[in-house]
Amino acid sequence: MKRRLVTAVALVILGASVRGAAAPAKDDDQKEKLQAAAVQDATVNFGQAQKQTPDPAPVGAVVTHFLDPDDVTIHKGGSVTFVVNGGGHGIAIHPVSKKTTREDVAEDLCDGTNHETGAANAITDRRARNAVCNGTVVTPTTINGVGVNVTGTQNLDYTITDGKDDLIIHTGFNVNIPTTTPPIVIVNPRVDDNEHTVRHLATSGRAPAGESAVTAPNAAGAFLTGSAPPVAPATVGAPGTRIQVRFEKTGRYLVICMNRAHMLNDHMFGFVNVVDAGEDEQ
Length: 282
Known about the structure:
By secondary structure, the protein is of the alpha+beta class. Helix content is about 10%, strand content about 30%. The chain is built from four helices and 15 strands. It is globular.
Protein backbone atom coordinates (compact mmCIF):
# COMPACT_ATOMS: atom_id res chain seq x y z
CA MET A 1 0.00 0.00 0.00
CA LYS A 2 1.41 3.37 -0.94
CA ARG A 3 1.30 6.40 1.19
CA ARG A 4 0.30 8.99 0.10
CA LEU A 5 -21.75 8.30 -25.75
CA VAL A 6 -29.66 6.45 -27.36
CA THR A 7 -26.28 8.49 -28.64
CA ALA A 8 -23.20 6.36 -28.82
CA VAL A 9 -19.68 7.39 -29.67
CA ALA A 10 -17.19 4.61 -30.30
CA LEU A 11 -13.80 5.54 -29.06
CA VAL A 12 -10.84 3.27 -29.64
CA ILE A 13 -8.29 3.39 -26.91
CA LEU A 14 -4.81 3.62 -28.27
CA GLY A 15 -1.46 3.99 -26.63
CA ALA A 16 1.34 1.92 -25.36
CA SER A 17 0.81 -0.99 -23.03
CA VAL A 18 3.40 -1.47 -20.40
CA ARG A 19 4.91 -4.94 -20.76
CA GLY A 20 6.93 -6.44 -18.02
CA ALA A 21 8.31 -9.77 -17.01
CA ALA A 22 5.99 -12.74 -16.71
CA ALA A 23 3.75 -12.45 -13.68
CA PRO A 24 5.07 -14.36 -10.69
CA ALA A 25 3.29 -17.55 -9.72
CA LYS A 26 1.51 -15.88 -6.82
CA ASP A 27 -0.28 -13.59 -9.31
CA ASP A 28 -1.52 -16.43 -11.54
CA ASP A 29 -4.66 -17.09 -9.50
CA GLN A 30 -5.71 -13.45 -9.67
CA LYS A 31 -5.10 -13.34 -13.41
CA GLU A 32 -7.15 -16.50 -13.93
CA LYS A 33 -10.00 -15.05 -11.88
CA LEU A 34 -10.03 -11.90 -13.99
CA GLN A 35 -9.98 -13.88 -17.22
CA ALA A 36 -12.82 -16.10 -15.98
CA ALA A 37 -14.89 -13.03 -15.04
CA ALA A 38 -14.26 -11.20 -18.31
CA VAL A 39 -17.11 -10.36 -20.69
CA GLN A 40 -16.87 -9.01 -24.22
CA ASP A 41 -18.92 -5.89 -23.52
CA ALA A 42 -20.03 -4.28 -20.28
CA THR A 43 -22.36 -1.49 -19.21
CA VAL A 44 -21.56 0.85 -16.33
CA ASN A 45 -24.00 3.33 -14.84
CA PHE A 46 -22.08 6.56 -14.39
CA GLY A 47 -24.08 7.92 -11.49
CA GLN A 48 -26.90 6.07 -9.80
CA ALA A 49 -29.43 4.68 -12.30
CA GLN A 50 -32.87 6.33 -12.44
CA LYS A 51 -34.89 6.70 -10.41
CA GLN A 52 -32.15 8.17 -8.33
CA THR A 53 -32.54 8.41 -4.58
CA PRO A 54 -30.70 11.49 -3.33
CA ASP A 55 -30.73 12.45 0.31
CA PRO A 56 -32.36 15.62 1.58
CA ALA A 57 -30.04 18.62 1.93
CA PRO A 58 -27.34 19.15 3.02
CA VAL A 59 -26.11 15.80 1.74
CA GLY A 60 -28.38 15.80 -1.32
CA ALA A 61 -27.15 14.14 -4.53
CA VAL A 62 -23.79 13.17 -3.08
CA VAL A 63 -25.08 9.66 -2.45
CA THR A 64 -25.86 9.22 -6.19
CA HIS A 65 -22.29 9.92 -7.24
CA PHE A 66 -20.92 6.45 -7.94
CA LEU A 67 -20.22 4.00 -10.75
CA ASP A 68 -22.31 0.81 -10.85
CA PRO A 69 -20.55 -1.51 -11.09
CA ASP A 70 -17.38 0.22 -10.05
CA ASP A 71 -15.03 -2.52 -11.25
CA VAL A 72 -15.60 -4.46 -14.50
CA THR A 73 -13.49 -6.89 -16.51
CA ILE A 74 -13.68 -7.21 -20.29
CA HIS A 75 -11.76 -9.02 -23.02
CA LYS A 76 -9.22 -7.11 -25.08
CA GLY A 77 -11.11 -5.49 -27.97
CA GLY A 78 -14.31 -5.37 -25.94
CA SER A 79 -16.20 -2.26 -24.92
CA VAL A 80 -17.71 -0.51 -21.95
CA THR A 81 -20.80 1.65 -22.38
CA PHE A 82 -21.01 4.37 -19.75
CA VAL A 83 -24.65 5.39 -19.17
CA VAL A 84 -24.64 8.88 -17.69
CA ASN A 85 -27.28 9.45 -15.04
CA GLY A 86 -28.12 12.74 -13.40
CA GLY A 87 -26.26 15.99 -13.86
CA GLY A 88 -22.79 17.42 -13.56
CA HIS A 89 -20.71 14.52 -14.83
CA GLY A 90 -17.67 14.29 -17.07
CA ILE A 91 -15.74 11.10 -17.81
CA ALA A 92 -11.99 10.61 -17.99
CA ILE A 93 -10.02 7.39 -18.30
CA HIS A 94 -6.42 6.93 -17.16
CA PRO A 95 -4.26 3.78 -17.23
CA VAL A 96 -2.95 2.62 -13.85
CA SER A 97 -0.84 -0.25 -12.62
CA LYS A 98 -2.59 -3.63 -12.55
CA LYS A 99 -2.48 -3.94 -8.78
CA THR A 100 -4.03 -0.52 -8.11
CA THR A 101 -6.83 -0.82 -5.57
CA ARG A 102 -9.70 1.45 -4.68
CA GLU A 103 -7.90 2.27 -1.46
CA ASP A 104 -4.79 3.37 -3.40
CA VAL A 105 -6.82 6.07 -5.15
CA ALA A 106 -9.18 6.97 -2.32
CA GLU A 107 -6.39 7.73 0.11
CA ASP A 108 -5.28 10.63 -2.11
CA LEU A 109 -8.73 12.26 -2.09
CA CYS A 110 -10.56 14.32 0.52
CA ASP A 111 -10.99 12.32 3.73
CA GLY A 112 -9.01 9.64 1.98
CA THR A 113 -8.18 7.40 4.88
CA ASN A 114 -11.73 7.45 6.31
CA HIS A 115 -15.20 6.39 5.18
CA GLU A 116 -14.15 4.11 2.35
CA THR A 117 -15.11 0.80 3.92
CA GLY A 118 -16.56 -1.19 1.01
CA ALA A 119 -19.71 -1.71 -1.05
CA ALA A 120 -21.82 -2.81 1.91
CA ASN A 121 -21.36 0.59 3.57
CA ALA A 122 -21.07 2.77 0.45
CA ILE A 123 -24.08 5.02 1.09
CA THR A 124 -23.19 5.47 4.74
CA ASP A 125 -19.63 6.29 3.77
CA ARG A 126 -20.73 8.96 1.28
CA ARG A 127 -22.93 10.61 3.87
CA ALA A 128 -20.13 10.63 6.38
CA ARG A 129 -17.57 12.04 3.93
CA ASN A 130 -19.94 14.88 3.04
CA ALA A 131 -19.66 16.22 6.56
CA VAL A 132 -15.98 17.03 6.04
CA CYS A 133 -15.71 17.19 2.21
CA ASN A 134 -17.95 19.85 0.71
CA GLY A 135 -18.07 23.29 -0.85
CA THR A 136 -18.37 25.23 2.40
CA VAL A 137 -15.36 23.89 4.28
CA VAL A 138 -12.59 26.48 4.64
CA THR A 139 -9.07 25.08 4.68
CA PRO A 140 -5.98 27.15 5.62
CA THR A 141 -3.10 26.39 3.25
CA THR A 142 -0.13 27.99 1.53
CA ILE A 143 -0.05 28.96 -2.16
CA ASN A 144 3.06 30.54 -3.68
CA GLY A 145 4.43 31.07 -0.21
CA VAL A 146 1.35 32.99 0.94
CA GLY A 147 -0.96 31.75 3.68
CA VAL A 148 -4.53 31.69 2.38
CA ASN A 149 -7.91 30.14 3.10
CA VAL A 150 -9.44 27.96 0.38
CA THR A 151 -13.20 27.50 0.39
CA GLY A 152 -14.40 24.10 -0.75
CA THR A 153 -12.33 20.99 -0.23
CA GLN A 154 -12.70 20.22 -3.95
CA ASN A 155 -10.63 23.32 -4.75
CA LEU A 156 -7.53 22.13 -2.94
CA ASP A 157 -4.48 20.64 -4.66
CA TYR A 158 -4.57 16.83 -4.92
CA THR A 159 -1.92 14.41 -6.17
CA ILE A 160 -3.38 11.01 -7.12
CA THR A 161 -1.07 8.04 -7.49
CA ASP A 162 -1.59 4.38 -8.36
CA GLY A 163 -0.57 1.10 -6.77
CA LYS A 164 3.04 1.63 -7.84
CA ASP A 165 3.02 5.13 -6.39
CA ASP A 166 3.26 6.57 -9.93
CA LEU A 167 1.68 9.97 -10.40
CA ILE A 168 -1.57 9.63 -12.38
CA ILE A 169 -3.45 12.90 -11.78
CA HIS A 170 -2.35 16.23 -10.36
CA THR A 171 -5.37 18.48 -9.98
CA GLY A 172 -3.71 21.74 -8.96
CA PHE A 173 -5.57 24.31 -6.93
CA ASN A 174 -8.75 25.94 -8.30
CA VAL A 175 -8.93 29.33 -6.63
CA ASN A 176 -9.59 33.03 -7.09
CA ILE A 177 -8.35 34.90 -4.03
CA PRO A 178 -8.56 38.69 -4.57
CA THR A 179 -7.37 39.63 -1.08
CA THR A 180 -3.70 38.84 -1.66
CA THR A 181 -1.17 41.08 -3.39
CA PRO A 182 -1.09 40.19 -6.20
CA PRO A 183 -4.39 38.28 -6.27
CA ILE A 184 -4.01 34.52 -6.57
CA VAL A 185 -5.97 33.15 -9.53
CA ILE A 186 -5.44 29.49 -10.49
CA VAL A 187 -7.97 28.10 -12.97
CA ASN A 188 -8.43 24.32 -12.84
CA PRO A 189 -12.22 23.83 -12.87
CA ARG A 190 -12.10 20.13 -13.79
CA VAL A 191 -10.07 17.11 -12.77
CA ASP A 192 -8.26 17.55 -16.05
CA ASP A 193 -4.70 16.20 -16.20
CA ASN A 194 -3.33 14.98 -19.55
CA GLU A 195 0.32 15.26 -18.59
CA HIS A 196 1.12 12.40 -16.30
CA THR A 197 -0.49 9.46 -18.14
CA VAL A 198 -1.61 8.79 -21.70
CA ARG A 199 -5.19 9.71 -20.86
CA HIS A 200 -7.56 7.82 -23.16
CA LEU A 201 -10.75 9.84 -22.79
CA ALA A 202 -11.77 13.21 -21.38
CA THR A 203 -15.24 14.56 -22.08
CA SER A 204 -15.34 17.81 -20.13
CA GLY A 205 -11.90 19.40 -19.95
CA ARG A 206 -10.32 22.42 -21.57
CA ALA A 207 -9.72 22.39 -25.35
CA PRO A 208 -6.02 23.04 -26.03
CA ALA A 209 -6.80 24.61 -29.44
CA GLY A 210 -9.63 25.30 -31.85
CA GLU A 211 -12.22 26.92 -29.63
CA SER A 212 -13.93 30.09 -30.83
CA ALA A 213 -12.97 33.47 -29.45
CA VAL A 214 -16.15 33.43 -27.41
CA THR A 215 -15.35 30.23 -25.57
CA ALA A 216 -11.56 30.04 -25.70
CA PRO A 217 -10.93 31.44 -22.21
CA ASN A 218 -13.21 28.89 -20.57
CA ALA A 219 -11.29 25.95 -19.17
CA ALA A 220 -14.48 24.27 -17.98
CA GLY A 221 -15.70 21.94 -20.71
CA ALA A 222 -19.42 21.23 -20.59
CA PHE A 223 -20.68 18.36 -18.49
CA LEU A 224 -22.57 15.48 -20.06
CA THR A 225 -26.37 15.35 -20.24
CA GLY A 226 -27.47 12.70 -17.82
CA SER A 227 -30.63 10.65 -17.77
CA ALA A 228 -33.67 12.04 -15.96
CA PRO A 229 -36.66 10.31 -14.42
CA PRO A 230 -40.11 10.55 -16.07
CA VAL A 231 -42.26 13.54 -15.27
CA ALA A 232 -46.02 12.89 -15.18
CA PRO A 233 -47.88 12.16 -17.40
CA ALA A 234 -44.82 10.69 -19.16
CA THR A 235 -43.87 7.16 -18.22
CA VAL A 236 -40.35 7.17 -19.68
CA GLY A 237 -37.65 9.58 -18.66
CA ALA A 238 -34.93 11.26 -20.71
CA PRO A 239 -32.24 8.73 -21.68
CA GLY A 240 -29.16 10.88 -21.29
CA THR A 241 -25.72 10.55 -22.86
CA ARG A 242 -24.18 7.13 -23.47
CA ILE A 243 -20.52 6.81 -24.30
CA GLN A 244 -19.12 3.56 -25.60
CA VAL A 245 -15.40 3.02 -25.27
CA ARG A 246 -13.52 0.14 -26.90
CA PHE A 247 -10.38 -1.03 -25.16
CA GLU A 248 -7.64 -2.39 -27.45
CA LYS A 249 -4.87 -2.71 -24.87
CA THR A 250 -4.77 -4.93 -21.83
CA GLY A 251 -4.36 -3.36 -18.42
CA ARG A 252 -6.24 -1.69 -15.62
CA TYR A 253 -7.89 1.67 -16.19
CA LEU A 254 -9.08 4.27 -13.71
CA VAL A 255 -12.41 5.90 -14.68
CA ILE A 256 -13.20 9.17 -12.93
CA CYS A 257 -15.77 11.94 -12.88
CA MET A 258 -14.12 15.17 -14.03
CA ASN A 259 -16.37 17.20 -11.74
CA ARG A 260 -13.98 18.21 -8.98
CA ALA A 261 -16.57 17.90 -6.24
CA HIS A 262 -17.76 14.50 -7.44
CA MET A 263 -14.30 12.98 -7.73
CA LEU A 264 -12.36 14.66 -4.97
CA ASN A 265 -15.09 14.99 -2.34
CA ASP A 266 -17.45 12.13 -3.23
CA HIS A 267 -14.92 9.57 -4.50
CA MET A 268 -16.73 9.06 -7.83
CA PHE A 269 -14.43 6.65 -9.63
CA GLY A 270 -14.10 3.02 -10.67
CA PHE A 271 -11.99 0.65 -12.75
CA VAL A 272 -12.01 -1.29 -16.02
CA ASN A 273 -9.79 -4.37 -16.34
CA VAL A 274 -8.89 -5.51 -19.86
CA VAL A 275 -7.52 -9.04 -20.13
CA ASP A 276 -6.21 -11.36 -22.79
CA ALA A 277 -5.00 -14.89 -22.16
CA GLY A 278 -1.96 -14.37 -24.35
CA GLU A 279 -0.65 -11.21 -22.74
CA ASP A 280 0.50 -9.96 -19.39
CA GLU A 281 -1.60 -7.12 -18.12
CA GLN A 282 -0.22 -3.72 -17.23
